Amino acid sequence: MSSTGGYDRHITIFSPEGRLYQVEYAFKAIRLAGVTTIGVRGSDSVCVVTQKKVTDKLIVPSTVTSMFRITNTIGCCLTGRRSDMLLIVQRLRHVAQEFEFKYGFVIPVSYLSQRIGDLSQLRTQYAFQRPAALSIVLFGIDEEYGPQLFRCDPAGYQVGYKALCTGQKEQEGTNSLEKKIKQKSDLTTKETIELAISTLQRVLNTDFKPDEIEVSLVTTENPKFKVLQDLEVEEILNEIAENEF
Amino acid sequence: MSGIGTGYDLYPTTFSPDGRIFQVEYAHKAVENSSTAIGLCCKDGVVFGVEKIILSKMLVEGTNRRVFSVGEHIGIATAGLTADGRRIVQNARQEAKNYENFTSDIIPIHVLTERLSIYVQVFTLYNYIRPFGCSLMIGSYDEEKGPSLYCIEPDSVALGFYGCAIGKGKQEAKTEISKLKLSEMTCKDAVKEIAKILIKTVHDETKEKEMELEMSWICKETKGKHKLVPKKLIEEAVEWVKGQENEED
């Protein structure tokens, strides 16, 4: 602890090396949740998969969710501290609705991501606030740009992805996805879903049951945000298992 | 004295090097210091039970409430700093009233829970206010949707439960609750089971003073309204628990 020399306790203090330790600790807090999320953007679809951890059998599983609808066609998957989730979702919804009211069309995912990135940055600059310990993955089918997949982190850095992995196994997942995307990056809907789920399974070294993951899929045919039902997920998992043999 | 959090545990705005927020974790400890409260989601309603330690013989029974109504159809049971709990309930009542004024309809429990969760969360974001030192269980019964039970912790995480316990004896209580078949239980049976868990499992007669049982329910029988369980039923439940003890001896 003393190696950081006391520069790590306040958000507005730079360390002598120019690091903001509190922001780095916020990233650690994301990993603490023990959940990994994977998102893949295909040529006409986006699929995001996240782990669903229900720690107690007394908990109603349908109330444990990390996938939220922001607009009809934009979804958001949050990874990290569960307590920060609702407020961020509310903010995202507010920003999206305000935009639509003002300009008359659905907010582009890239712009929504920029806005939430800027709001996240503010929280790294004021001493009386702390960053949200969340990795915010925004995805949807844009009218102009087609399938979009963006991630915003506690530092306020946001960027678009062809495929991303965030959360506890970020490094392993990213490496795995890089190899696959290098081979082929314009994926069909089926390939997108299979890549997302099979990567998550490989990285975590488990075969999932339908109630252990949440899968969200948006396609250009069906741009409405939805979280797949258990039966649909089971079908996909079975297909993946068959393909591997 | 220095614990693991020393230096990183003064403000809710400070992350520790491993990404924890100690002030919020300490708020959980405040809840663990208080006596236990249990909520069960049964076939035909939700029942709350609170173990109230009688601190002095001069205290009037039935006062110092730990269970509150929000509107007529929602009940909230608290554990932790009672005053903090009352503040959140006050906010809940305001939310319910606003919702009703706006939509001319009573507030659904999941909407209220989400709003309270966000309210509690805001107090974990700034360095000039402290998190709430209380957990709440929110319950309601709807003819169509059936019974619902949610629990909000000091870190604002709100999850739905089939059965929940908060406070000092929550671990032992949860173990007992998971043995029950809640989907087949009626509220009347739940009153007995909760009394049994609070009197036998959770309450330590040697260490603590006497206890008072505060129970309330929202069920088919009360037509979806949150009411205190009739005193007669509680007395019967206590008798039944004593009977069980004698049987086992």
Automatic annotation (TrEMBL), chain A:
Residues 7-29 form the Proteasome alpha-type subunits domain. The proteasome is a multicatalytic proteinase complex which is characterized by its ability to cleave peptides with Arg, Phe, Tyr, Leu, and Glu adjacent to the leaving group at neutral or slightly basic pH. The proteasome has an ATP-dependent proteolytic activity. Belongs to the peptidase T1A family. GO terms for cellular component: cytoplasm; nucleus; proteasome core complex, alpha-subunit complex. Pfam families: Proteasome (PF00227), Proteasome_A_N (PF10584). SMART domains: Proteasome_A_N. The keyword Cytoplasm applies. GO terms for biological process: ubiquitin-dependent protein catabolic process. Its main location: cytoplasm. The 26S proteasome consists of a 20S proteasome core and two 19S regulatory subunits. The 20S proteasome core is composed of 28 subunits that are arranged in four stacked rings, resulting in a barrel-shaped structure. The two end rings are each formed by seven alpha subunits, and the two central rings are each formed by seven beta subunits. The catalytic chamber with the active sites is on the inside of the barrel. This is Proteasome subunit alpha type. It is found in: Cytoplasm; Nucleus. Keywords: Cytoplasm, Nucleus, Proteasome.
Automatic annotation (TrEMBL), chain B:
Residues 8-30 form the Proteasome alpha-type subunits domain. GO terms for biological process: ubiquitin-dependent protein catabolic process. Keywords: Cytoplasm, Nucleus, Proteasome. Its main location: cytoplasm. The keyword Glycoprotein does not apply. GO terms for cellular component: cytoplasm; nucleus; proteasome core complex, alpha-subunit complex. Pfam families: Proteasome (PF00227), Proteasome_A_N (PF10584). It comes from the Eukaryota. InterPro entries: Ntn_hydrolases_N, Proteasome_alpha, Proteasome_alpha-type, Proteasome_asu_N, Proteasome_sua/b. PROSITE patterns: PROTEASOME_ALPHA_1, PROTEASOME_ALPHA_2. It is found in: Cytoplasm; Nucleus. Gene3D superfamilies: Glutamine Phosphoribosylpyrophosphate, subunit 1, domain 1. Belongs to the peptidase T1A family. The 26S proteasome consists of a 20S proteasome core and two 19S regulatory subunits. The proteasome is a multicatalytic proteinase complex which is characterized by its ability to cleave peptides with Arg, Phe, Tyr, Leu, and Glu adjacent to the leaving group at neutral or slightly basic pH. The proteasome has an ATP-dependent proteolytic activity. This is Proteasome subunit alpha type. It comes from Anaeramoeba flamelloides. The lineage of its organism: Eukaryota, Metamonada, Anaeramoebidae, Anaeramoeba.
